[in-house]
Specification:
Length: about 300
Amino acid sequence: MAFLNALPGAVAEGLIWGLMAIGVYLSFKILDIADLTVDGSICTGGCVCAVLIAGGVPAWLSVILAFLAGAIAGTVTGLFHTALGIPSILAGILTQLMLYSVNLSILGGRSLLPIDARSNRLVLNMIDNTHSIIVAVGIIVLIIIILWRFFYTEIGLTLKSTGDNPDMSRAQGVNVNLNKVIGLALSNGIVAISGALYSQYKGSVSINDGRGAIVIGLAAIFIGLSVSLKIKPNFVVSLIGVTCGSVVYYTVYNFVMLLGLKTDYLKMLSAIIVAIFLAVPYIKSVYFTKQKPLPIQRDAGGDGNA
């Protein structure tokens, strides 16, 4: 009964983090870049949203402005990588470190800023999980439709080609560096929307809200794609699968918490879940299909050519 009572909250939270997973999917799967900026940009989205709401800005407008803040963070990472030649992983780490100070500055030096759901009309809040689920699903559907239309435009197709084969794209006259900046800006903008919604949902924002976000995003991706790719491997289905993977992750997460697992081990649990789903293709090929072991990549997106 305790699990059933906690299920609506887990679904609502999973949907909100599903947006973050979609952002990670764009950088990790479309651009083939392991972007660690998300640990900072998701918190940036929450900080911007909370401060704007406290200043009297409507909650829906705060979410849009949070998207712009996240896009700026992604642009910085993209410029570090393309203009300065810094490997993408290190560029993301540098931006993430910078964002800690930026986020602290946005909050006025405070580590926690509450959002009063009674005096502000929020987009969603944990007080009403049913409403939060409906709103979150609506926002996710809207963003998936926008991304679906965008990635079938000329710019969107060149973004895909940049991730698939940057050398061939460059030979065809595609500005690969510009595409990487655009892709990272879009990715982190969506991640920031997730942060803005999450801060409204739980009624506060903390300077440490983004810790481990990349692990949750990767877990959602591998959980979702392990199922969705068996149905129909296209772009929209993959995004839906990633979102559902986030819901599954948070459902399992809440179930484990109800079993009495100490909160000290929750980060380790997240890492184990990701490790399991990363290892499944290798284990399947070696122990079940009797094929030769899959090659282990040495560079996970360091220059976009993993």
